[in-house]
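hey m, so remember when u said the tokens were messed up on ur end? i reran from scratch. heres the input so u can diff it against urs
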Amino acid sequence: MKPRKYPRLFFVRLILAASLLILNIRAGFCDEFAFKHAAGDKFKIVSEVHEEYLQNGKVLDRSNIHNRISTEVTGIIAGKAAHKALFQVMVDKTAAEGGKTMNITNEYASQFERDELGKMQVSRKFAFPSVRNVPVFPRRNIKSGDTWFEDGEEVHDLEGNFGLKDFLRLPFRAKYQYLGQRQWRGKMYPAFLVTYSIRQNYDDYFEKNPRQYLSPNAQDPKNKEPKTLVIVSVSGNTSQTVFWNSALGQPAASKGAFTLRFTMSDGTVHEFRSEEEAEILYSEEMNKDAVAAEVEKELRDAGVNETSVRKVEGGVSITLENIQFEGDSAVLRQSEKAKLDKIAQALARYSGRDILVAGHTADAGGTAESRLKLSGDRAGAVAGYLTQKKARPEGQIMTKGYGATVPIASNDTQEGRAKNRRVEIIILEN
């Protein structure tokens, strides 16, 4: 694994957003908190994180990261709500055609259960939600000023950052305080504060398990062999305010900040400081049959060719078959822009739903890495053009490149390669 210049703790940006994911509550009164889910509920959490990365106290990077968590309550089992969720990390990207979109850099699927007080059950194979058992409510009514304490846990996959071969688990004890009414974006909501600290020393553990937590990100100047670095301690603080929508019995939003520090065996300290705002949005049920039929008819009436419409698991897909770019580039040909003008008009009918633009290439020429980049750039070009045409605002359109990993035809023929060289515009169900 080729080490990065410095680690990027992108998954930590999901911590505060992940804690919102588990707040799908339908309590009858704002001072009587309890988890009561309904099978079939679908919602998403969107958040923006402003993060600084410091090494030995010096700021090396500042970034703005977008997180999106889509989840569905798949059923109620013995009083516990089963959730299926997809966590996505995104960064801003300016397309070749202009227009800014959000490019998906990482995705993580997860499943978990939660009881009425907030206790979670998550398989050890899942790294997300990063924060477990937050919040957990007492079995009593809560009035303004009340406090209570519950145990929780953070779980992190650090293999890409520090070379860890197993998830790092950080236990903590959270303090809760009910704040009463607080303002969020001009409206008043019942709110509560969640705070906790992390203090973990791993000297003894790493001595007993040396190969589980190795970090090959330094070189020994004498023999030029990888130098074994380990995390010897982790510390941090989290503070989050959750705003409660008592009419719906669910959180409206949250805002908070966290700091997390990793001290290595050579004395280096990696520190991450973040501030975040998050919002939860419920999705209306989507009649995919009706949407697919409407879009197909509108495009057919508009004379849009080499385009197919079909239902997919996440919504309704418009596939631009054999889409044309300038040679080996992400610059759209003029004929494709005319097609996208008409597609943008069709998309405007469903303005309340987010869009994912997925790029695909044929398995021909170049490397897997170059094909992945090209497909992502081409998806970005289509998304950027749609943004320019006001099909969606920047915050509602995402992109992802798949390279040649998802073929729909054989790459052994010219006809098959043309079909695989495509862009899909997906109207998302959630």
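this time it looks ok to me. Residues 357 and 382 are 7 Å apart (CA to CA). if urs says something different then somethings off w ur setup not the seq
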